[in-house]
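Hi everyone, sorry if this is the wrong subforum. Our group has a chain we'd like a structural model of before ordering constructs, and none of us has done structure prediction before. Sequence below.
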Amino acid sequence: MILAEKQVEWLGVAQSVMEIEAQAIEAAAKHLDGNLTRAVEIILSHSGKVVVSGIGKSGHVAQKIAATLCSTGTPAVFLHAAEAVHGDLGVYTPGDPTILVSKSGSSEELVRLTPILRQFRSALIAIVGNLESHLAHVADVVLDARVQREADPLGIVPTASTVVALALGDALAAALMVARQFTEQDFVRFHPAGQLGRNLYLHVGDVMHRLQEIAWVEPETPLREVVIAMTRFPLGAACVLDQFNHLIGLITDGDVRRALQKFDDIRPLRAKDVMTPNPIRVTPEVTLGRAAEIMENRPSQISVLPVVDNESGTCLGLIRLHDIYLGAR
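Answer:
Right subforum, don't worry. Here is the predicted structure as tokens:
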């Protein structure tokens, strides 16, 4: 009983944290003003990179902001505020804008950097939680990252403040995407690996199993022979084709199991008796991401899709959800 009460308490704390953080982001969104557009203009006006710097938890946020900028068309690097004065300032080229991330706006490592950065003719964009701080006063642009309180039970752990700073970085990156007219094709160029890039860059035709690699049968094929074909090509389904290789049905492992449950004697059954007629299908030109949506965004998910020629309707093969996410053939 005591454990159950504790579990309720823990869940309540977790929900409160997320609610406080969500409210903090909502408040920060309302504080957005011309400073955000000015930051976009500063970054757009410079042909080089952006340097993003911070220390402690704000340093981790700065790293993520730099990574997001890079992946969305704005070259950026992270500069550790403490290491900057020990040689890492060599990353700068004249005019590189700097984004400084700090909750207090008075972190010693960042404060002592500002006069040095002026020597590099660096415009300063500050994401700070204290608008009366040193960084807020010396920066060219200030993005308001104030929070009413931190979200943890003690109200002292960087939680709401880091989430708001991160959200402001995302907001800046998104505005820059629009300003640069950054497209899905641009995103693919920067993400050739990983599932994101795979979903956007590859098409069904690149990973599907060809007709000679799958189980396919005719409508009058006995169910026993269907099972043998599906055992020979264990991809989870068999395509049912007419004499012109047009797709007329699909038999999945589930269809076979349901037939065994429904009929005491399966010997008279043919493929046409257990198949799903006119099944959902895709063409080779469809992206992997779209194919995954077709299979997953439905009341009952499916794990395999027939692939047909867009013009003739001829069956070309099969693609599995497994092929999309793991690239296994």
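For your construct planning: DSSP finds 16 helices and twelve strands in the chain. The CA atoms of residues 131 and 165 lie 14 Å apart.
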